[in-house]
Fold DUF2487 domain-containing protein.
Amino acid sequence: MKFSEIEAEQWEELRPYLDTCLLPVTGMTGAESPLEATQCLEDLRDIMDLIEVPYRGRVVTYPALHYMSEPEHFQQALSSYCSRLKQQGFKYIILITAKTNVRFQISEADLWITPDEDGNLPSDADINSKIRELWHS
């Protein structure tokens, strides 16, 4: 469920059920051509579908972080975003990217979903296992 699909008056009623935030990271640098940027967004959509579709109603998808600054600055910013989302009441933060080179240690995030080093998306079973483990931890 995208954050924009939730009406203001519904939020308090739904809040106990929407305990997981999906925070997409596009991982672009700004040096991409329009064609490359389009491909980045399509790849991100494909990996996000692995979570958004089966877990609709429990997971809220926030707007993507499209552009990365220097890695250490971006990691600090991402950590800060995750902290603020937890302060908003999300129990779990799942970071997701379609890029194979975007991986950071973010203690405030509960799970990173990424393709493997060859660019293959994780299987439905693998994602299901990781999310169930997260929710039962």
Summary: The longest helix spans residues 34-52.
